[in-house]
Amino acid sequence: MQLIIFSNILTPRIKYIFNFIFKEILKAEIEFTGNSQYFLQSEHLKISYGDEPLGEELFFKSTPLLFSNKLEEIKLKTVSFGEYQVPFPVDRSALPFDVFAASFFMISRYEEYLHQRNTEGVFKASKSYQHKWRVLQKPIIDEWALIIKSLIRKKHPDFKFQEKKFKHEPTIHFSLLTYFPEGFLNRAKFIFSAVFKKENNYLNAQFDRLTGVGINNEQVLEQVEEMLALKKSNPLYFVDFPDVPMDYIRTDRISKTLNNQSVGLLRPCASDKQKMTEIKEDLVKLKKIQLNLIPLTSQQLDALKFPICYLNILNSGITADYSMGYDHVMGFRAGTCTPFNWYDLQLEKVTPLVVNSYCLTDHILQFLTREAALKEIHQYIDAVKVVNGTFYSSWSLKSLSDHPKYKKLKSLFKEMLHYAGN
What global pTM score does this model have? Predict the structure, then answer.
């Protein structure tokens, strides 16, 4: 048996969010119809979305958001729902709010589009509606999906959903090291490009070396592989390239160490001026490390400017991204821990770019006591396990080294792997 969804008008937004909740999260087969007679005569489990129910089906009252095809300012009202606030309140409905409009508002990052339209600054977690509604720390869309599931089972106890399992995939990022070329002119060109491009990442690496905090990438990668040898988790690696000729970048041992691993491009949107041509150039470099780049992946940890960054990486051929999170705040930026296809509100269509959201980083954990950090890690893993989602976290490779400065972070990483159970 499958679900049949009725709406008078089946907009791209409606199809997108219903497909995400029912197919991606709940693993149920659905059919859409705008034909009321067909809907009423169907023997499938029925759900309607609109102003009024058609019969005895499970009915969710709609609000205007999903019927619009414009990006416009919204005066949001909220209603209490348990311990938090929810937007788009309705009455005479299966739930006291339009759960589908609320989910679409969060997952599409509607407020971030409006933010970028009105200002050049980076969007901050503290300004988000999820923070105001006290749901940022929850994979709230997944939790709402389970509530919908329970409503369906209450009305149709025999309806079966396919099984969805918890997954854990840590992401690990690092910058490749360089070496000085021979000759005065070559060295001068090398230093000039390193100093004035890529936001001085090269200088940061040199500073780490001089202060003794620098690490041997290959050595630490091998240690990480040993840590993960008996685990089910497969890490995702993201590499940052210094903006110097490829001849000055050490890749041989890295390429050997990362053989058959998932490797993506770090910081594809490192600056506002970064164009698709530059992203494509870095992808060419990346293929010299890992030949089998399927799919092409990326991660922008600092200053993710949405949606311009996603437009650039999508147009560069990247089809999977791991940037959807806050570097300095824990939480679920898009309201979910289930991978989803990015919906472009400017073109009003679903894109091929699959977004994978991380909810915490080592950058945040380093400022907490070990006990507080462990508590946060456990709470986030538990939250994702409850909804059988995917738990993504972000770590710098140096945080997993044996350097005394990173002793706490390395132990937290090991504890995270153990607690995740895979």
Answer: 0.90
